[in-house]
Amino acid sequence: MAKKKNELWEWTKALLIAVVLAAVIRYFLFAPIVVDGLSMMPTLHDQDRMIVNKFSYTIGEPDRFDIIVFHAPENKDYIKRVIGLPGDTVEYRDDTLYVNGEAYEEPYLDEYRAKVIDGPLTEPFTLEDKIGETTVPEGHLFVMGDNRRFSKDSRHIGAVPMEEVLGKASVIYWPIEDVRLVN
Q1: Known catalytic membership, residue 39
Q2: Where does the chain cross the membrane (predicted)?
Q3: Which whole-number Å values give the CA distances from 141 to 3, 53, 100, in the listed order?
Q4: Considering the entire predicted model, what is its pTM?
């Protein structure tokens, strides 16, 4: 009888440890997310399942062009690409991104740019036009979806406070034929 009691206690301990480890990993390190919508096409597709690395920004800030997940004003989580970092000037003209006056290539937009026949993929704007400031405020990010014509992003909701960023989304794990690291 004592042996069965001891075995039951060992199984209970193992189960409790597994649950605690899963909770720590889920809430502090990595979390699953489902892409909802077409705003990140062609990079991400509607209903792609991804892993969000919550640990990625505990040491530093995101890098330009990282794909991040953040709490949006509508009590939803959005997934977008970082375009402007704190202190940056951001401008679009002639369908080209300019950050701090320097033109940047955006190869992830090439597929959609090739299909556009009725004007630019990204309408011209300055930060002042969109957020009323000349630079991205300290502690904030300027983000945009890759599907520029159909994305609700910083052009509509303003700069994203860093404390609203959940983490970096870099791995698609479902559907199985799309499993990959994303850039």
Answers
A1: yes
A2: none
A3: 59, 18, 14
A4: 0.83
